[in-house]
Amino acid sequence: MKKYGLMLLLFFSISMQLLAQNPIITNIYTADPTARVYNGKLYIYPSHDVPWNPEWEKLGAVKEGHGHVMTDYHAFSTTDLVNYTDHGVIVAQKDVPWGSKVGYGMWAPCITEKEGKYYYYFPNTPADKSGFRQIGLATATQPEGPFTIEPNYIEGLKGIDPNPFIDDDGQAYMYWGGGKGNSLKVVKLTADMKAIEGETMAIENLPQEYKEGPFVFKRNGLYYLTFPHNKDTKNSTEEIGYAIGKHPLGPFEFKGTIMDRFEDCWTNHHSIVEYKKQWYMFYHHNDISKVGNLRSVAVDSLFFEADGSIRKVIPTLRGVGLTSASDTIQIDRYSHIHNAEIGFVHQAGVPEWKITKAKKDSWVQYNSVHFDIKPKFVKLKLKHTGQKGWIEIRENSKNGPLIAKALVDTTNDKWQTVKAKLDHKPKGTLNLVCVFESDAEMELDWVLFSKK
Ligand code: FUB
């Protein structure tokens, strides 16, 4: 099971220590993450999913068929991809001068920085009923705000999923859109970032199916246009694909898939960023709520091939960042699993998971545990109902050096904490592999290294 420890209310922000596992944000539901690096910190600007409240209908609200309900935006930051700070609400529906007060349509936002000023673009339901969504702007002098919302939406940007991109020559572009055909669009922004200039262009030569959530970045002189798309809106979910061009206005050539679709969540929406010499992809999934409109942001590492193509990102529960060996290791947020499953419990807002159905020939790997302590013992919280059983903890692979062998009390069929002396003392950063040896199915909750 997963218990989120340290949750401190610090002025108006909340610090969360999440053991470097996916999903990375668990205090609220979040989706559509834009990750940016400002002043040495990594910031995440997601949208904020909430459940529909029927009381709003008395105020004139109308629930839209797609089910996304969003009233405000938070910003988050981290320096280690382990500990995140929630900076609280940065822009809210109630404060948007041009917005409907009962629209609940604050979909995917995006931000960029120019000359020390932060430009935060967000879609919202317009009060003047001029469209499904219009795109507005809020500005700040710090990445976490406070943000000042412009009085009007930006003329000519009707639609969703804004993505501003500033090229090395200082010219800013806006990508946005959603729909079938050539539905992703691009246009130049004026120098003050508050209006569009020139001709709006529909981006051609992309898959003709449903597309949304464009995210553009530049690497080694190439412009990467990445976007979720859905081959079949009735029976399928979104995968994330990419195209490459030699100019921000294109043409772009479609190159393939960065992340395969999740079977159980209609949307995916991502951003790609380099931080401390490693590329990451931030995206969302619904593995806390299991509901398509209550999503949670996750992150995994992303790698480029030598020719500039993007290696497919396999979403993991483990996520990124180091887990300290002094923490309770929630092994169910695994890197690899063989012949076992994850059980899910969701109680009172606290997400909890465990390994289930593990027996002989089952193993679970958990990557990047940093041994910043010198433990002598390991404790395991587990459940077992058979005649015989133990778990071996090994280094780096299922046949790697044995760290410890934990024997199970087979007379006890309730949850038990088993303690084992270490065979040798692990050093540095390594991957843990729990190998199950059991005549009956076992459940494993967590692993904890200790000095006593
Ligand atoms: O979050 C609402 C909408 O769902 C976004 O704007 C789309 O990109 C999709 O993720």
UniProtKB/TrEMBL annotation:
It comes from the Bacteria. Residues 358-451 form the CBM6 domain. The record marks 161 as: Important for catalytic activity, responsible for pKa modulation of the active site Glu and correct orientation of both the proton donor and substrate. One of its GO terms (biological process) is xylan catabolic process. Pfam families: CBM_6 (PF03422), Glyco_hydro_43 (PF04616). Keywords: Carbohydrate metabolism, Glycosidase, Hydrolase, Polysaccharide degradation, Signal, Xylan degradation. Residues 1-20 form the signal peptide. GO terms for molecular function: carbohydrate binding; hydrolase activity, hydrolyzing O-glycosyl compounds. Belongs to the glycosyl hydrolase 43 family. This is Family 43 glycosylhydrolase. It comes from Flammeovirga aprica JL-4.
